[in-house]
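Running this now, will post back.
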Amino acid sequence: MENLNEKVQNTLSMEGSILDAKLERRSFLQYAGAGAAIVALTAAGCKKDKVMIPTGVTLDFKDDFGVLNYAYALEQLEAAFYIKVASAPPSGFSTAERNYFNDIQYHEVAHREFFKNALGPAAIGGLEVDFSSINFTDRASVLGAAKAFEDLGVAAYNGAGVRLKTDAYIVIAGQIVSVEARHAAYVRDLIANGSFANSEVVDANGLDKAFTPDMVLSAASKYIKTKINVINL
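Update: finished.
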């Protein structure tokens, strides 16, 4: 398997980086229409001659691959949410809000595809999401969900950064979390003006909060049908 660090370096040096360029409409429709397939990653273990095979996907935090797959899982969730919002925005959205959520959609799809392409064969499968608790026709419900996803995403990157060992991955994580924080600030201000960096997300030292992977996955489980197995955390 090609070295993942080399893949990331090659991606960073490519003209028109995926993190900077908007996806063309045709490409986006391909992503949106692909759907989320559940792929089982199996691991066999013996106990009294009985083979136990976990279902779902497995995040193995023993190395950088596990951390990047963790980020990939979260980006899958966010991309799926914003694709749904952009395809049929709430009637209460203003034109500016529709346009902005459309832009966020492109950012999240770009993040998702970056991790998928960089990880290659090491990438986990697609996650099946559950947005049944969100009323996509209601502005308040959509903004509340967006706030939850963005705040959680920022805290997740902040908490996982210390687990990365490769400088190139740390740089990428920093570039992505800064974009997620911009999203979070905007959505928060739409809900309550001036709340973009309040004490809910920024501590007394002026630092964004950081959540451990188990905290993040527990919060995200409400929106994910696919079972996520975690090892070496």
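The helical segments are 4-13, 25-34, 64-87, 95-119, 139-160, 167-191, 213-220. More later if anyone needs it.
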